[in-house]
Write a structure and sequence with these properties.
By secondary structure, the protein is an alpha+beta fold. 26% of the residues lie in helices and 27% in strands. The chain has 3 helices and 6 strands. The protein has helices at 5-14, 53-58, 83-93, and strands spanning 21-26, 29-34, 37-43, 46-49, 64-65, 74-76. β1 (21-26) and β2 form a beta hairpin.
């Protein structure tokens, strides 16, 4: 099942206090970038983020879920209705994320 544009717009609105949030559509899903780094994505209308140390500390009870069959598991973000929580999570994760690969 592909993710809806409405869910993407909802997540982008929740993250509107952060600068440099971008996304890219990929096979019916959306990859989310924060300040140029891949932070996670929207898969089947679920927000999943990379399982960095800071993300695990920020969400100690989060469950691991696969974005699609055969993919590395990511952390499911349950508190998408909490704008402050989401922006805090993204800020906390930023330094743990790898730099974008040079083209």
């Amino acid at each position: 099942m592909a993710s809806s544009n409405e869910y993407l717009q909802f997540i982008l609105e929740q993250l509107s206090e952060l600068e440099e949030i971008t996304y890219r559509s990929m096979m019916g899903e959306f990859i989310i970038y924060y300040r140029g780094k891949v932070i996670g994505g929207i898969y089947d209308d679920r927000l999943l983020v990379k399982s960095t140390k800071s993300a695990i500390s920020y969400m100690p009870t989060a469950t691991f879920e696969s974005p699609y069959e055969g993919a590395k598991e990511m952390l499911l973000v349950d508190e998408v209705d909490n704008k402050e929580f989401l922006t805090g999570l993204f800020r906390a994760m930023y330094d743990d994320l790898p730099e974008p690969k040079k083209k």
